[in-house]
Structure prediction request, 740 residues.
Amino acid sequence: MKILTVCGMGSGSSLILKMNVEEVLSGLGKDAEVEACDIGSVAGHQVDLLISTKEFGDQLEEFTADKILVSNVVDKSDIEQQLKDYLAK
Amino acid sequence: MLNERSKLILNLLLEKRKVNLEETAKLLGVTERTIRNDLAKIDGFLTENNLTNLKKETMINYSIENEQSTTIHRVLNKIHADSEKQIDYWEEPIYRLGFLYNKLFWSEQRITIESLEKELFVSRSTINNDLKKLKNMAKEMSIDILFEKNKGLYLLGKEEKLRILYFHFIDLFEQYNYNLEISNDDEAAILTYWIRKVEEELMIEISYSSFQRLIPIMRTITGRIQQGKKVTINSKNLNPKSSYEMDIIDNNCVILEKYFNIIIPPSEVVFISKQIYRSNLIKNEVVYQGYQVNLDIIVNSCIKEISKLLKIDLTLDKELFKHLALHFQTTITKDDYEIAHLITKETFKDIKAVHEHIYTVVKRVMQDIGRREHIPFNNEMEWLFITLHIVSSIEKIKDRIAEELNVILICHMGIGTSQFLKYQLNHYFKFKPRIVTKKILSEEANKADMIISTIHLQDFNIPYIQVTPYVTEVDIKNIQRLEKQIIEEKITFQEEGVWKGRSEPMLKDLLTEETIETKVSVNDWEEAIIYSGKILEKTGVITNEYTQAMVEAVKNFGPYIVIAPRIALAHASSKDGVHQIGMSLITLDEGVEFGNKDNDPVRIVICLAAIDHHTHLKALSELVEELNNEEFVNMLLHSDKEEIVKVINQK
Prediction:
C-alpha cells in the first residue's frame, strides 16, 4: 500500500503525519510505503491513500485516491481510528 | 524577383546542372546562408513560372532538371529585357538609402555625389531625393549629413548614434532578405565562434534571427574600432548588466582584439554587451494552441518531480534546465516536429531497456505535467529524449561525486608501498586518495567516505575494503563495486537516520533558554509568527526572509500550521533562508485566532527551521510525542522557560 502525507511545505505537518502513520501501521502489523510531500507535488505521485489536515481538503478534492483528513496531526489515537476504518473498508 | 546574384547562380545551374553550396559561396564571395537565400529565391521564381523546384541532395548540392532548361532560358531572357533599364532591387528606395548610408558610414573621406551616381546607376535627382530622405532619418538620431563644397558628403554625429542607425539598416535589410556584406567568411566564422562562446558563458540562448544579426553588428563594431572610431559612453553610468556578466564579455574581447588587431576599451565593452542583451533571448514563454505556456514552470516541475521520484537531486543542474527548456520549446511549438526521425527503433528499445526505471519515472511525470498544463506529452520518443537528458545529468553528478570522494589509504608497509598503491589507484579511479598512518586514522576516519587498507581494521562504521599491497584485478573490482555503492548512496536523498556521521540534534539541543519565551503578548497570528521567527533570527539560524515566508505560507495555504489544539507549528521551506537547523517555542499570554476552527485559539507557537527533509526528524518526533501529551502542554502553558528547559532535559 502506498500512502502520501501532505502539507504546505512537505517538511512540517506532513512529516509529523508520516511518523505517526508509520508508527500506527507498524502497531497494527501493516506494511505500507509512506511518503511526505508538499501540496504542489501530490500530482506527481500515484498512491492509494492521501492523509492530510482538513485545511487541504478542498485542494485535494481533484485527486481520486482515498483520503483521510485530520484536524490534529499529533493525535495518534484519532489517526489510528481513521486508519482502522479505512483498512476495514 | 531574382536579384543579380540569384540570376548568376541560376545561370551556373543551367550550365553545370549541379552546384555545391560551399563552392558557390566561395566563388561568389558571400556566405553559404546568402546562397541558400538566393536558392530559395530561385525556387520561388521556378514556382512562379510553373516549373519544378530545385532538387536538393544531402542539403549541399542543388541541381536543376534537364528538360526545363529551355523554358528557363526563355523566361530569363524575357526578364532580362524587362530589367534592361534598371537593376530591379534599386527600385526599393530603402535599399538605396541603406547603400548610401553604408557608403557614408564606412568612407574615411568625403564622398562626391558623382561617385554615388556612378555606383548606384541612378539619376542625380534620385540621389538628391534619397539624400533628403536619409537626412530626415539621420536627423532623428541627431546625425547630420553635411556637404563640403568641392569635396563631398560626410556624416557628423556621435559614434554610438551613427552605429545605431547603421544597425537599423542591417535590420531593415534582413527583412528584405538583402545583406550588407560587410564581413568575409573568415570574419563571420570567428564572430560566430565568439558569439557562441559568450552565449555559453553567459548562459543565455540567443534566438536564431538575433544571432544572424549580431554577426554584422559585431563586425561593424570591430570595423569601426579598426578605423579608430570609438563610442564615448561612460562605462560606469551605462552599465546594463552586472559586473560578472561584463567580466565575461570583457575577457572574451581579448579574442577579438587579437584577431582584428585592435584594442577594445571599456566603453566599447559596455557597448558590445548592450548589443548582446538587446538581442532576443530565447523566451521562457511559448504559445501553444493560443495559450501562453511558461517553460520555466514546466521545466522546473519536471525536474523537481523527477528528482523526487528518483530520489536524486537534479535541481542544481543548470545545464539540464537549459537543455530541457530548449527541448520543450521545440516540441511544444512545432506540431510537425518529428523527433522520431532522430533515433532508430533499435536504439529506442535499448535505451528503454537499460534505463527502464528512469524511463518509467519520466513517463509518469510527463503525463502528470501534460494533464496539468493541457499539453499532450504522450509521445514515447518525447519521454525517451527526456530520459536521455536525465541520464546524462545523473552521470554528471556521479562523476562529480566520484572526484570528490574522500578516500583514505592505510598501508602498514611504509610510505613506499603506500605511494605505489596510490599511483595504482589513480590509474583506475577519479578520487584522490590520501595516505594516512594508522595512528591518526581515528581522527581522519570520521570525515572519510571510504577506507582502503592493506591491513585488517576493526570497529569502523565507514565503508572499508582490504586490498593486497600490489593491487590485483580482484581488488580493483572490489573497490569499483564499493565506490559504485557509495556513489549510489550519496546521490540519493537520505532517509531518516541512514546518513552516518551527520548529527541529528535532539529536542533538548534545539529548545534552550535562548530559544524559549513564555507569556508573550501579541495582537494577532502574524505577530505571533514573527515573534517566534525573530528569536531564531537573533541566534543566526534563519534570515528575516524565512520569517516572512512563514507568514506568507499561512496566507497561501491557510491555517494548517495549527497542527493540534492550541498549538501552531510555523515553518517555511528550507530554501527560504535557513542557515542551520533550529527551533523556537513561545507561549502566548492570551489565545490568538489563526482561523483554524478545530484548533483555535492558539497558545503555543513553535517555529521550525529545517535544512532538509530529515535532519530535524529526531527532534520533531520527540516534540510530537510530547505534544500529544496533555500534561506536557499544560506544563508549557504554566511554566517559565527555566522550568520548561528542565523538563525537556529530563526527557
About this structure: Chain B has 26 helices and 16 strands. The longest strand of chain B covers residues 582-592. The radius of gyration of chain B is 36 Å.
